[in-house]
Write the structure tokens for this entry.
Amino acid sequence: MPIPDFQSIMLPLLQIAADGEDHRLRDAVEALANQFQLTSAERQQMQPNGSQLLFSNRVAWASTYLRQAGVLEAPRRGVFHITQRGREILAKSPDRIDSHFLMRFPEFVEFKQRGQVGEQNNQAEISVVRTEQGTPEDMLGSAYVRLRAELESQLLEEVKKCPPSFFESLVVDLLVRMGYGGSREDAGRAIGGTGDGGIDGIINEDRLGLDVIFIQAKRWDANVGRPEIQRFAGALQGRRARKGIFITTSSFTSDAKEYAGMIDTHIILIDGQRLANLMFEHSVGVSTIGRYELKRLDLDYFAEE
């Protein structure tokens, strides 16, 4: 099952506190992960910006909403317990607690209104599709993922339009940004000059040249099949080479991927989608137009000595 949204976590979180005892939020995260039967991978899934575990963030926001509504309270950092209002809610056995449910409490209405004022003040700077199922970080993350996907699609389209010589230069720029090839000048001399048996270039794996990587770069529209990978592998064996990278603007067939995975020579396949992804990550062909700094409350600052 998918990771539950933070609205779906509110009632189970309140039920954990039903015993009236103090509970640590990190223990609640583990208990709720077990209750929702999350897999190990789902428990370790990060937010798009990599700043925090996704499920932990959603539990924290569920706790925040319940505290803002006076349903839970935090006697100290990282600890929560139920309030009288919370007990009264559970006594009525609600099927679900969400933002709509909490709007009956004036404290929560005030909390939401404060947030809406902040959004209106920033409306000229950013527009994010709102959803009551998502935390603020979820909404920012979703917007980021959409913007990145659109930009990567545009990147790939531009790469497909460029001439072969420019594509070779692009490959050099990317590999150097990733830490291969030594200097840009050295890498530029190594790429695009061999044309030897399916090898388009040779680049140092590190700045000292302790090992080399052979490269095949194809600006193609048609999928790359097994025969092309076999020819590249044969060229590598003829050079007694152990490592190769096959880069294409298209895709690889399943036979090509299977063959690359079964041979002794280590060949990395980079299709158009991954190429655009790497270009984005290493800022090749893209530029930064703005940054939004995301901050959270520093509870240590307010902790008593």
